[in-house]
Specification:
about 300 residues, mainly alpha, about 70% helix
């Protein structure tokens, strides 16, 4: 089964090709752990982690896969550190873009153009990293930097020209969603299984298709297209986007948990940080859009 996040879908975080994934929690002892459930503990075709010595130690000792600190395997501390790095770079570049790219009437077109250009570069970097077989910290940090420039410009436009304080409100909303999903996931209130995965992916596909149709109508017909991103309907779709982002977070948490449990190499923490950063950017943008719509209608 593929992850919702393209970063994870080509790695050992997804279940197809025998990799770890949903409903593959490690079982204590027994050969089943080493021969079927734990892809990191056995050599098998297409498994990039088959030669990870730290994963194979558990197989040889007949113990369930664990991720002790100080080894070459990914731990939660690694994921937190890398995620903090990418988000830190994103925040710094966003703040610089906000301060150095004015959005008054004389400069808004230039600043907005720079923001869109940074977004396109960030998108290209994200695609390149998604299709690489190994994590590239330079690519991931560069993505965060360019994405930060885009968010800084867009946030400045909304905050200074539409709704004062919108950026901080969107940040608080994003943090609240992240904390809420994390608590719900750890408490077991969210069960990430095949049914959950299928529902989220079907909903996400429908959401993206509708947004593409709306964009086509806006480009060729002018105005707001079908109105999916403005007015009351835009608010509804913004809420749906936030809910989808929350579901993506739950899927990301599950994929990271599987990677840690099954002994993914430490460098995979960069991919975990990359995926979580993209999901948080999605949620932030949806909050910012809703705030802009609500204040534009006043």
């Amino acid at each position: 089964m593929r992850s919702s996040n393209p970063v994870f879908s080509r790695r050992g975080f997804s279940r197809d090709n025998g990799y770890a994934g949903f409903n593959t929690a490690p079982q204590a002892g027994g050969a089943a752990v080493g021969t079927q459930a734990n892809p990191y503990a056995q050599p098998q075709a297409g498994n990039p982690y088959a030669q990870n010595p730290y994963a194979q130690q558990d197989l040889q000792q007949g113990a369930p896969p664990q991720a002790p600190a100080g080894t070459g395997r990914m731990t939660i501390d690694d994921v937190v550190l890398r995620t903090g790095t990418t988000l830190g770079v994103l925040i710094v570049t966003a703040a610089l873009a906000w301060a150095l790219l004015p959005v008054d009437d004389a400069n808004i077109s230039r600043s907005y153009g720079i923001g869109i250009g940074a977004a396109l570069i960030g998108m290209v970097l994200a695609f390149v990293q998604s299709f690489k077989r190994k994590a590239s910290p330079a690519l991931i940090v560069s993505y965060a930097a360019f994405e930060g420039v885009f968010l800084g410009v867009v946030s400045s436009i909304v905050d200074n020209r539409i709704a004062s304080g919108a950026a901080m409100q969107a940040v608080i909303g994003t943090l609240a969603v992240f904390a809420g999903v994390l608590v719900a996931y750890r408490a077991g209130w969210i069960r990430v299984n095949r049914r959950f995965y299928g529902f989220v992916m079907a909903a996400a596909l429908g959401f993206v298709l509708l947004m593409m149709v709306n964009l086509l109508f806006a480009v060729f017909g002018g105005g707001d297209g079908l109105g999916f991103r403005s007015g009351p309907l835009g608010i509804v779709f913004g809420v749906v986007g936030i809910l989808l982002g929350a579901c993506f977070l739950a899927l990301d948490f599950k994929q990271v948990e599987d990677g840690i449990a099954y002994g993914a190499p430490r460098e995979e923490a960069w991919l975990a940080a990359f995926g979580l950063t993209m999901t948080l950017v999605w949620i932030y943008m949806e909050f910012l859009r809703i705030i802009a719509i609500l204040n534009s209608s006043d």
